[in-house]
Amino acid sequence: MAALFGKRLRRSAMTTAVAAAAVAALSASQAPGLTDTQNGRQSTADATPSPGDSATGNSPYYTDLPPLNSPTAPPSTGPGSPGGTGTGAHEAGIPATVLDAYKKAEAELAATKPGCNLPWQLLAAIGKVESGQARGGNVDANGTTLKPILGPVLNGNGFARITDTDNGAYDGDTTHDRAVGPMQFIPSTWEWSGRDGNGDGKKDPNNIYDAALAAGHYLCRGDRDLSQSGGLNAAILSYNHSQEYLNTVLTWLEYYRKGTHEVPDGTGVQPGDRSDGGASPSPSPSPSSPGTTSPSPSTSKPPKPTKPGGSPGTDPSKPGGGGSTSPTPPTPAETVAHIEDAGTGTLNATAGDAFAEQVAVRTENAAGKGVGTVKVKLTVVGDTDLAFSGGFKSVTVVTDSTGKATAPPLRAGEDTGEFTVRATVVDRKLPGLDYTATVSARQADALTRTGDTELTCEAGGQFADPVQVRATYKGDAADGVATTATLIKSKDDATENDKGPYFKDADGKAIRTLKGLKTDGDGRLQLPRIYADDATGTFLLRVNTTGGATLTIELKVTAAGATATPSASPSAT
What does the domain layout of the chain look like in residue ranges? Predict the structure, then answer.
């Protein structure tokens, strides 16, 4: 969005290489004032923002992740079959009108900006994380949401602070701005980026056709080519400037590329897990100011017949009318009595490696029967760099027909120790289920010297050849292993020697123990230069690693060579 709004306050700075590359691409393409023509006038809709800007004002988004697998069979088309069949079929279903809007936007961009190569699946991925595909496709026949979709108030309390820019025209708030519509544009961005995608002569952020086309143009600004990873990453980061947002959108993009299908409007899977930890914002009443489109009377549902006395209920004119309505059946989550482990093995891994075992849970009702289509949230508890694949600290998975759900693989960071992974049922207040994940330090079980040249020097000199070693673990290179090098007194006395060869510290002072060393990606480690004092003889250097690998190396110091005394010059005769 506009540069004056700054970075999202609740997100950490991006540190991964992909984020750095994307931001670099974003900066390199920055060109304030770039315009394109529409209706015979210049527009800033194609101007590339400075890093930190975003379409959404960096508002919260949904962090639900797709199932691990795409649908394995075509969707069923009969009544009550909104999600198809096969693993992940429900999440792969996109409401019909929403899907049509994405594909129409792709077609228009293919004609007007063919070099951008915008895939409709990218719009679907962004629409998923921004609004859950317009709240599961709750739109009318024209594509307008039945109720406006508004993000949290951007008042600086946990979010960016964006004071009102539209006098409440789009978001109904005359004090602060809020992200609006299924693609969550903030008003100031919509003012210049809005499009009329359904040909009704209006630019309504709560209309999925208008919003999808606007999002497409926003992503395709400048000379971006979304078929290239640099352009794709930069475009997504420009929409919401967060590495976790980028990861989430890319995950959904990959999922939708593997296969999707159409489901009836209003039957799409609704999101549940928001990035700021808050509850899903409820659709808000239409603002009284112009700028949003209310559903037309023809699309409104007729009021329910009332029972005698005026309360809604069954139609008294029908058999059995006038009685009480049938109770609303409980949701799957409401029938869950407890959450159980589903055969998760021991969670152990070495720092930097993926865990071999994955967390698997099962939701059961009071009778012990598995409950399907239940969302389970798994969270890495505490301050640690342990995370699920993709760098996510929490993920939401959906149980299958047996009540079982498996989380994505965990990956250990550099923090070692025991950490907790907690599983809870979304939309249900039940005790969680805790798992212990143990991360061990990187280790080696063997050390070898990479060269065989004898290490010698004269007293008071320095060793010409460096000492380089290689660490392995079970025959493979052991990278990142903590290593210590000590000049010891003897093979049987590993205490630090007080004479003989030595290293130098940063101040040039003699030291005989080096700690905090680590092997490189190939398990190699080259020690700093070694010097000799006046002591002569054979000395020992011992190298140790985490895991118990040990190597002892001989260093020989010889006496300094005799210096020839120059003879006296012959006297003149």
Answer: 3-71+86-294, 332-440, 446-558
